[in-house]
Amino acid sequence: MPRMAASDRRAELLEAAIRVMARDGVAKATTRAVVTEADMTLGAFHYCFESRAQLLELVTETLTERYVAEVRGLFAPHKDIRDSVLDSLHAFWKGFEANPGEHQISYELTQYALRNPGFEDVAMKQYEIFLRAFAGLLELAADNAGIEWTEPVPGARAVRPVDDRRPQHDLARRPQHADSRPRSTARDHFSARPPRPPEPRAA
Asked: Where is the composition biased (Basic and acidic residues) (predicted)?
């Protein structure tokens, strides 16, 4: 096994875990399966991660950061908030169509964590990661549009089911029956205050 920095080794193990989960399912992504996929030893795994639970949490963080990076650039200054939300849903959906197995990981991971003793905290942390990411995007959209959300955190909770249920629906119906048209009505589910007035200039 070639020498590499611990951060690089961890990144390779995370990507290996994602490949195994997308291909074989979360339950099959054992530590042994992950190190085999990465062509590393069990010792390397335990050097990089405190536990398999930590690996699952970091998989969620990695995938969420990946999704956020795909849509962050769509929230341009002075862009209408509804257009920003709809464009982000379009981008998310394109990513889902390109790699449905990777998106399926989050749904499987939640159920796996809830059904297996010792992993309960993973499900809660997964939810917190999702909520924090969506809230951050909504705040970015509001800042660029010059508005303020009336209820920032509940707003993030509202968009998450919109984001969740369509992929779940089409994962069950894929590939020939999937509806690739994002629902534009989703962009109208948010409540916002009018644009902020300009700041008064100092005398």
From this structure: 160-203
